[in-house]
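REQUEST ID: PR-0412
SUBMITTED BY: lab tech R.K.
PRIORITY: routine
TASK: structure prediction, single protein chain
INPUT:
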Amino acid sequence: MSHFTSITWATSFHDRLRGTWAHQLYNGIRKAKRSLLRQSEGEAILLARYHRVHGKPLNMNAPKTFTEKLFWRMVSWNQDVHPIFTRLTDKYSVRTHVAATIGDEYLIKLLWYGATPQTIPFEQLPAHYVMKPSHSSQQVLIVNKQAERTDLINRASVWLDSNYYWNAREYQYYHIKPRVMIEECLENPDGSLPLDYKFWCFNGVPELIQVITHTRDMSSFFDKTWTLLTLTNKEGRSQQPIPKPANLEEMISIASKLSVGFGFVRVDLYNVNGRVYFGELTFTPTSGHMKLQPDSWDTVLGEKWDLSLEHRPPATRE
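STATUS: complete
OUTPUT:
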């Protein structure tokens, strides 16, 4: 029997079992096995990822560089993560923290949220809006009024049926309650989508500002004086000078307030027509798939990350 035939037969057999007690038993055993091996398999995957990206084993005993500490965090959290990091990674529950810390005027307008996409009030939504899951990363749809509702409901249902932890073993996602969120679509005066300003912060001090486009083809790093830096964390992206935001000091102040008490967190903001909006808090950017170039930046940023803060996370202002 060929390999292709074996797969076809197995798939057909599995489909015939769907909905039966045998299928339920199979899924139950599979889920239990996955849960039992989650921690050990997760750690092995993370350690292998670091080795693959950086060409050497991870120093878990005395991490020094930024990327070493990033993977140290992911491996440590894979064993046990404080609930605050789950709440602040959750794109819905983080809104409460942001409103209490800097004010709800910085939140993007929430049009609908829930776990039953069949009840989305499509007829009440504006011409353009954003649909995304609360429990994952980089899964965002910019939707217009002509979009097929059935397709949107099916996409949302797939989101709700998945646990983003299994994508890259970032344990802060594991216990997030799945929801679908529909937000106002931010647009510049010319109708274009806004730039994404990502503030790399170390215990309340924004050190770098990464600016990327919606299409992610540009990624420029600036310091707080808006000097373009010779730094990249992803090959193949253009690095361009862009105008300094007139309200940069306000953005820096917001990023500082939202990052106090965390050894490292990336605070993502938007700036639309002079008004600042909160995007998200990111604790494990790119799930570790990055190399900082030149290498000296890995050392410089690693020195700014105080790992002692990892053992006493700050209380949320809820």
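NOTES: The chain has nine helices and nine strands.
REVIEWED BY: pending
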